Amino acid sequence: MKIVILGAFGVGKSTYVETISEITPLRTEERLTQAGQVVDHLTVDTKSTTTVAMDFGRRTLGGGIVVYLFGAPGQPRFADMIRSLLTGALGGLVLVDTRHVEESFESIGLLEEADVPYVVGVNTFAEAPSYNEEVLRDALSLPPDRPVVYLDARHRDSAKSALIALVTDILRPLRSHA
Known about the structure:
Layout: E1 2-7, H1 13-20, E2 29-31, H2 34-37, E3 49-51, E4 55-60, E5 66-71, H3 79-86, E6 91-96, H4 105-113, E7 118-123, H5 133-140, E8 148-151, H6 156-176
Parallel strand pairs: 1-5, 1-6, 6-7, 7-8
Antiparallel strand pairs: 2-3, 4-5
């Protein structure tokens, strides 16, 4: 099962893939440069690296379900590459940072454009404001059928809850026809 992890720059996609993967993940991190500042308007100033292609990991869930995780880069200039990553994906996880909710619109739009089911995972940061689900749904204009999960991408059990919610959502239509 191919799953794509999307979200804005610095929201925790690489951390998520590293935390949840049962294999050593493939990472394509490169140092941020002055040249990149010309095209990227980055709101996270504590990062020194960025994903330039994708992160890749694998996780086996109960029932023998093997999930292949593709972490997408977060800058808008990579939208065409993300569209390619979405080819063949059965689902997407959009990680959201409540300090920059508006930066999630592009990721959600790409998934909706590709007609790929998705779950919104609110990555909780200590210094970030906390909002209840109803407020976030309204801010993100989420349809009522899209699950929202609160998680900490650094902790395996927490990160796994979002993956389980996504796989459950993907399999729900199959179970209702069985």
